[in-house]
Amino acid sequence: MAHCVYTTEQEVELLRERQVGVVHCPNSNFSLRSGCLDVRGLLHCGVTKIALGTDVSGGYTSSILDAMRCALHTSKAVCFKNDGQHYDPLTLPEVLYMATMGGASVLGLDAKIGNFQVGKEFDALIIDTAAPCGNPVFDLFENDTNKVCSYTLPLN
């Protein structure tokens, strides 16, 4: 299922019971002003197959990095709708998971792709941030370099 911005409690229960995957397309949702998906709410209700999508028919970019950024912003926007109730916005590790293993899981390909486990197909891009190009796939600030940054994700 894509978007799932306006699902009812009964629909969310069906998603959980039938283990249906949801593809969150935050750029498209903002561009079309269709709403903000409460990913944390879906996770809390037991919907665990959630991926990020770019949906360029409604959004303006095919960049998964932009989808990750928009998902973080969307999650923070959902905080505003909760009228001061405690709400934990999505974290970078959660959004990275949605962009990688989440997508593989929703497509039923998590045994073949989605991470760097031995035996899986290589499903990644190697990007030279110093290469000249007219339309970079991600933003660099003036003082940024192409040095590699590492971030260790906790394994569950």
UniProtKB/TrEMBL annotation:
UniProt cofactor(s): Zn(2+)
InterPro entries with a match to the protein in the record: Amidohydro-rel, Metal_Hydrolase, Metallo-dep_hydrolases
Organism: Geodia barretti
Residue ranges of every copy of the Amidohydrolase-related domain listed in the record: 1-139
Spans traversing the lipid bilayer: none
Keywords: Hydrolase, Metal-binding, Zinc
GO cellular component: cytosol
Presence of the UniProt keyword Zinc in the record: yes
GO molecular function: guanine deaminase activity; zinc ion binding
Biological process annotations from GO: guanine metabolic process
Domain of life (superkingdom): Eukaryota
Protein name: Guanine deaminase
